[in-house]
C-alpha cells in the first residue's frame, strides 16, 4: 500500500522526556488529531526500556503510527582525587569507584558529568583538602570498556568529552545555592553526600556549577561510532 503522507510533529514535554517525534503513515485514511494523541499518550505512559531513545509503535487497521521519545539527559557528580581527574581529562574518559563498572552503566550518551575532588591526592597521608569541582563534560561513550593498565589492573572506563579551559571551583561559596545540599536534613554535614562516590543531581545544580567553572554547557552534535546526537541546552 502506498504511503499517502507522513506527518512529523515535535512537542516539548516536561522532564524526563526531552522531545517526542511522531510519524503517521496512513494506509486507508489519515487519522484524526485525537487518534494520534491517544497513541502519544500511551507511548509516554508506557515504561521505557531504554532511557536515551525509546520507540513505541501502534499498528491500526487504517494507519500506522510510530512514536520516538527522546529522554532528557541526566546530570551526575563523580568523586575522584585531583590527579585522577587530570588523568581522565587528558585521556577523554571517566573512571569511578576504583575502576568498577556499576556507576558507568548508570550514565548515558548526552548526560552531564562534573568531577568533585575532596583532596589533592587519593593517599590520605599525601593529599591536602581541596573540596572543589575540578572538571566537567558530557558522556559520549555508548557503553563502558575495559582498559588494561597492567596485568593486575583492568579498570572500566567510559568516554567523555570534557570542557576545555575550565577552572576548579571551591564548593563552599556554592553550598547555600545547591539544591542537592539544601535537601539533606543537616546541610552542615554536606560532606557525607560525596561518600557515595557517584550520584545524580538536578539540571539547575549542574548549570550553577558549570557557570561557576566557566564552562559553555553540554556538548552539542557529539559524534560517536554509530550515531550523532544533538544535546539541547
TrEMBL record:
SUPFAM superfamilies: PUA domain-like. InterPro entries: EVE_domain (IPR002740), PUA-like_sf (IPR015947), UPF0310 (IPR022996). It holds the Pfam family EVE. Residues 74-211 form the EVE domain. This is EVE domain-containing protein. It comes from Physocladia obscura.
Amino acid at each position: 500500500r502506498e504511503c499517502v503522507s507522513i506527518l512529523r510533529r515535535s512537542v516539548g514535554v516536561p522532564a524526563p522526556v526531552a522531545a517526542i517525534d511522531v510519524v503517521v503513515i496512513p494506509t486507508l485514511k489519515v487519522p484524526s488529531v485525537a487518534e494520534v494523541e491517544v497513541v502519544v499518550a500511551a507511548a509516554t505512559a508506557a515504561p521505557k526500556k531504554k532511557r536515551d531513545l525509546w520507540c513505541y509503535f501502534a499498528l491500526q487497521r487504517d494507519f500506522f503510527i510510530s512514536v520516538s521519545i527522546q529522554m532528557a539527559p541526566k546530570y551526575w557528580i563523580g568523586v575522584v582525587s585531583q590527579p585522577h581527574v587530570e588523568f581522565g581529562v587528558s585521556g577523554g574518559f571517566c573512571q569511578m569507584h576504583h575502576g568498577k563498572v556499576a556507576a558507568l552503566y548508570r550514565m548515558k550518551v548526552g548526560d552531564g558529568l562534573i568531577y568533585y575532588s575532596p583532596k589533592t591526592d587519593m593517599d590520605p597521608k599525601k593529599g591536602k583538602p581541596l573540596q572543589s569541582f575540578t572538571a566537567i563534560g558530557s558522556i559520549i561513550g555508548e557503553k563502558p570498556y575495559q582498559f588494561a593498565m597492567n596485568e593486575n589492573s583492568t579498570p572500566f572506563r567510559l568516554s567523555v568529552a570534557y570542557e576545555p579551559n575550565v577552572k576548579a571551583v571551591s564548593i563552599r561559596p556554592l553550598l547555600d545555592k545547591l539544591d542537592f545540599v539544601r535537601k539533606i536534613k543537616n546541610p552542615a554535614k554536606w560532606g557525607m553526600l560525596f561518600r557515595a562516590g557517584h550520584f545524580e543531581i538536578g539540571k539547575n545544580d549542574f548549570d550553577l556549577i558549570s557557570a561557576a567553572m566557566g564552562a559553555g554547557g553540554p556538548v552539542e552534535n557529539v559524534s560517536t561510532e554509530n550515531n550523532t546526537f544533538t544535546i539541547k541546552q
